[in-house]
Design brief:
Blueprint: E1 2-6, H1 10-22, E2 26-30, H2 33-42, E3 47-51, H3 59-68, E4 75-79, H4 84-92, E5 97-100, H5 105-120, E6 127-130, E7 133-136, E8 141-144, E9 147-149, H6 153-164, E10 170-171, H7 172-178, H8 190-202, E11 211-214, E12 218-221
């Protein structure tokens, strides 16, 4: 999943960002309402995590702008304002859920999962498949045939990206930017190492390999070599 976190408290922003990344998700961040609204209207996200009190444009202003434009992205609003009237105002302004600070990250993650599940039931793909390889994005389970495959968060994100782009060549730069969120080449073999480990889990002991190296270009996940 890809999330946008809009929060002007640096400590809270990094706390949420770190937790979401460790859970295997892609995360963009903004520290003020202006940047948050720009990203929310120029990029595609599975959900937004947004503070109420923000510089430039507050959370309610962003909600009004997004909903007025027809943007239905799920939004979880964060706020230290925990009175019933505040929660009602946030929900009536277009928020899908409301979480009062301070909060436990586990609860935030669970609420995001519920929001994306609701959206998934309508218009978002929740499973990915290539031949006998199946990935459930909601339960975060991967199987090849009747074999369950245990992946760490980075491996899960890597396989998800390959599945979403199956039958297409994905380059090193594409993987660095979309799986590692690096916008530079760290000049390491990090991708080769993770692809090798993923192959051991996905293709080992199977007659038909799904992950293929395209020499001089990158990698491709497909049924054919």
């Amino acid at each position: 999943m890809r999330y946008l976190v809009v929060e002007d408290d640096e400590k809270v922003l990094r706390y949420v960002e770190k937790g979401l990344r460790e859970a295997g998700h892609q995360v963009d961040t903004a520290a003020n309402g202006k940047d948050g609204l720009f990203l929310a209207t120029s990029e595609t996200y599975d959900a937004l995590v947004m503070d109420w009190m923000l510089p430039d444009i507050d959370g309610i202003g962003i909600l009004h702008a997004l909903r007025a434009s027809g943007n239905a992205v799920p939004i979880l609003m964060l706020s230290a304002r925990g009175e019933v009237t505040d929660r009602v105002k946030g929900l009536r302004s277009g928020a899908d859920d409301y979480l009062v600070k301070p909060f436990a990250f586990e609860e935030l993650l669970a609420r995001l999962e519920v929001l994306t599940l609701r959206r998934g039931s309508a218009d978002t793909q929740t499973t990915l498949q290539c031949r006998d390889l199946h990935m459930d994005l909601l339960s975060r389970r991967v199987n090849r045939g009747d074999q369950s495959i245990d992946l760490n968060p980075r491996e899960f994100a890597l396989l998800e990206y390959l599945l979403r782009n199956q039958n297409q060549v994905v380059t090193r730069t594409m993987l660095l930017e979309n799986v590692w969120d690096y916008h530079f080449d760290p000049q390491t073999n990090i991708i080769d190492v993770h692809i090798s480990r993923l192959r051991q889990k996905i293709d080992k002991d199977h007659d038909h390999a799904l992950i293929h190296t395209v020499r001089g270009a990158g990698y491709r996940l497909s049924e054919s070599s």
